[in-house]
Every structure is written in structure tokens, then in C-alpha cells.
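Q: Convert this sequence to C-alpha cells.
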Amino acid sequence: MRNLWFCSNFGNLKVGTLVFLKLRVMEPSRPISNLSASTSCNSTMKYVYKRSKKSPGISIIQRSEEAVVKENDMERKSGEFQSFAHDAAELEAMTVQELRTRLRSIGLPAKGRKSELLSALKCCKDNQINEFLCAGESSHVAGQQVNISLKRKAKNSSREDDVQNATSLSEVSEVQRSKRRVEKLSADNNVCEVSTEVLTTKQKLSIEPGVEPWTVLAHKKPQKGWVPYIPRMMRPPPLSGDTKYTKLMSWNVNGLRALLKLEGFSALELAQREEFDVLCLQETKLQEKDVEAIKQCLLDGYDNSFWTCSVSKLGYSGTAIISRVKPLSVRYGLGIRDHDGEGRLVTVEFDKFYLLSAYVPNSGDGLKRLSYRITQWDPSLGRYMKELEKSKPVVLTGDLNCAHQEIDIYNPAGNKRSAGFTIEERESFETNFLSNGFVDTFRKQHPGVVGYTYWGYRHGGRKTNKGWRLDYFLVSESIADKVHDSYILPDVGGSDHSPIGLILKL
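A:
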């Protein structure tokens, strides 16, 4: 075992008063890629993805026991669906209580007036549960009925710190349509069908207890073929033990000190569960005077960390890269004085690629920084990446503060002039990055999947999955085909962003 130290209290950073959280990190259970000429690892062991177990040490959105029982009781539920063949007259004759009992017995929400309960039963009359459950016993695939209930009272959602508003009303006054979308997914060489239902209504959607919020297709205007991102069903099988690869993670922590003080969060649990080689952080909100003390108590095992902080506005922005492997070189900022005062970029060079951890400026309240962003920052970052690319491929990760397409935001129509979704920002994103030879790895792997990485705190956007995809891994086209998995970890709490990951074959 190796020890990883995280400082658990940064309120007073005097050496004598630091309170440390001692974290033990297991030795790598798989070969660590030889990213640096000066660093190698001989340990070999097959890496296996594991579904996370509930632990008091990490803030993870878990399913209730009811949801687990539903998965383990597939045969019983399938039989109930197949025997559910009441005709219209028989349904009409049921009392409200009988209708609710029947809905609950097949795993559907049981709220609303009698007409709504009848409508729900009729819609599901011919829906067989085996269309939703995957064939076979894949460790990566487990069937789950997507349950959503209707709750009156519409509210507006807004992006709390980044002034991005998302409306929580849908456009239709009653349940007008129930659509099944079937998407074929492959897992462990077994093909399964995933059926999800989209209910469009004037009423506010609230997730039933026991449902993973991100499994609900939450979008104001979903297009044909779109499905929600469900990591346990959509992530590919692990690579074989003799395949060389590196595992990168990125996370906008929205204040590192606040995260580490958060009750229920443990960096140990996250490190053990994900076994990342490199962790990139954004929005650390640290000051330069704090960095050395943090570095001394932070890492033993991940022995290389590189931090940059805002000097123009203290306790603001900030990025970092923490690595098991010693890089060949490190750079801070873009090398342009006007851009480098806010600690928004760290670059490390490994044997096979450059890795950039970036926190792109938000256009802000009233779009005050929109012009700066699209005419100065984005073009400068794009040129910097192309210059690096002359010697080796580039991987850019972080909070890029742009939902590129309508699929990347819950309410596109209501946010045309919101920071992060203006046409100017989206065109700049396209011009300076995607059309400049860099690939959006998540969208390449999941072209029709709705997966968000940011949910505003103010109106509980995470609970209803009304979010934005603002965090990315962009890679040079030359290594795009080497990406084994580009994924989101929506179950990890502690910030208004979720971590994202990239597994890159070398």
C-alpha cells in the first residue's frame, strides 16, 4: 500500500495547525504506461471495471434498495407485465387505490388523478419488460425501468455562478406522447436493447426515489434516436491486461478546500475506485501562498503535482495536474501576459502526448466577457495547441464553458443568449478546436447520447438531470482512434460538475 495525503483543512495553512487526512492508495493493479522516459512500472495485473459499492467515504448518488430489488427480480416483473392484459372497461372500473396498487406492482409512479393513472396504465399495457432488460448476465449491463412522476408547479432553473438559465417547463399541457426509443448497445459481445420512455408534459418532472437521475432522458426537445447516458450500460469492456494505456481524469471541483472539507467525501475512495494515472483539476480557487503547503501534504504515490493560481483575483479560478508519472516538461499559461493572470491553464508533456488542463473563461453576467473570450482567449488557445501538435499529439481537458450542440444542454431554446450557449461561443468552439483538427471524444463515441457534466445547485438540476455538458476531452485527430473510452461519472457528487474520464491506448 502507498500513502496519499490530502489536506483536510485549509482554513489556516500554518504548518503547525494543518489537519491532514491520511489517504492510502493501493499500488496500481494494472501496468502503468511508460509515459515518461524517466518513469516506468513493472507491475502487471489485469484491470477490471467495478461498479462502485456504497461507501461512507465518498459522495456518490446511489440507488435505493428498491431499485436493487427491481434489478434482481426481473423474472417476477416480466411475468407481471405479460399478464397485464386488462381491457379498457376493466381499467375504468378500477378505483383510484386499485390503479395505484397496480402501477406500483409493475414499478411505475402512482401519483395523479384517476385519468392520469389510467393513461399511464394504457400506455404501458403492451410494453413488455424484456424490451428494456438486456439479454444475458453481463457485469456491465443491468436492466432498469426508468420511472418518472409528474409534479405540478413549474419553476425556472438557472446556472448559479455562470449566469446560465435553464427553464424547467416543458412545452405541452398534458401527456401528449409516449415514445419508445430502442438503442442497440454492445457489452461484453452481447447485444441488448435499451428502451426508454420520454413523457412530455406541462408539469414539472420529479424523479421517483430509487431512480438514477441521469438515466432519464431530460431534454426540452429530444430528437429521434436520442437516449440518456447510462455509464454502466454504455462503457466498453476493459482492455486486456497486456494492452498499454493511460487513464486520465478531469474535474471542475468548484473549490478544492470546500470539497475536501465536505462530509462524506473521500479522495481515497475516488482514487481506489477509478485508479487514474493523471487527475486534472479546474476551479481550485487556491492562492499561490497555499500551494507549497498543499503539495507537501497532498501526495505520496502521486508524486508529481503542478498548480497555477489566479493572481489578478485571489481565490478565483485555478487549475492543476496531479500525476503518478513524472512528465518531461511543464508549462503554465499560454505565454501571453493578458491571458495568464487567472491561472487557467497547465500543460504537461509525456512521452506520447501533451496534456492540458484548462478552465476556459466564462462569458459572465450580461455576456461582459464574450468578446474577450471569442476574439482573444479561444483563438490564442487554439494556436497554442496547434504549435504543440507540431511535435506530438495534444489532449485538452477541462471545463471549456461551452455546450457545443443542442444535445449538450437541457433547454437550448431558452438559453440562446446565456453564457456558454451563445451562437458566438459555439461557433468559436467549432472554429478554434473542432475544425482545427481536434476531436470531441465523448461525442465521437456517443453521437446520439444525452450526457451532462454540470447541473446548477439553485433548483436541484442534478435531481432532475437538467444540465449542461461543459467538460470535455478533446484530442488530436491522429490519436482519436486510440481512445478506448470517453466517459462521465454522474454518480460522483461534491461539486456542481461531475468528473469525466478518458482511457487512451498507447
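Residues 1-71, 74-86, 126-208 have pLDDT under 50 and may be disordered.
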